[in-house]
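Ligand-bound model needed. magnesium ion.
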Amino acid sequence: MHIKTMIIIKSPREIEHLKRSNAIVAEVFDKLKGMIAPGVTTKELDQVAEEYILSKRGRPAFKGYRGFPATLCISINEEVVHGIPSQRRLKEGDLVSLDVGVNFLGYFGDAAITYPVGEVDAEAKRLLEVTEKALAMGIEKAKVGNRLFDISYAIQSWVESHGFSVVRDFVGHGIGKDLHEEPQIPNFGTPHQGPRLEKGMVFALEPMVNEGTYEVRVLSDGWTVVTADGKRSAHFEHTIAITEDGAEILSVL
Ligand code: MG
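Prediction:
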């Protein structure tokens, strides 16, 4: 894989801006988490998110991005990422991934959480726990002096040691005045490789973890990514800034 090293370093002032856009992202999750229940439509979740972001004078970052039609990406069960909100109702036992992007005064925030709908089976719980922890393991490696693929390797080795797989076709990314900046941050890779991490780098880390094969395909709607074997997938994402003492998570309240 070819990774360019044009990574934009953010000033403390820019990181303050990024904190504001990511705070709105975190507030959206705070509003939506209580709505996750059997019977709610994904469109309803999308509307609440959009209204909230607009009320904060933000803009939904995904809406219109390459023609994506909604504020949230909502992906259920075997859907990995980029699902389109619709009249589909959540049902007991589903895993629903919400991905939120906000542009606030020209700076972007981006995060994702996968929620259980009602009671889910034990394997689903394990998939959520392993994926959320994979993100934490990646964040832990996001520090000055490490290299980019130390993050990738930490995520991959944790996930695979639990018998799950990491998606190859979609990756984390730098973020700032653009939603997707360099570098691409794969959730797999060789440790001690890649660009050196520096203070002021801001990344969206986002492991996508599958129960079965890592292979995925895109549905005929042109957006929804699903697992090739129909097994379930989970997705957790935070926007983080690299500081002198480790990573600071920006997309939290
Ligand atoms: Mg992202």
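The radius of gyration is 17 Å.
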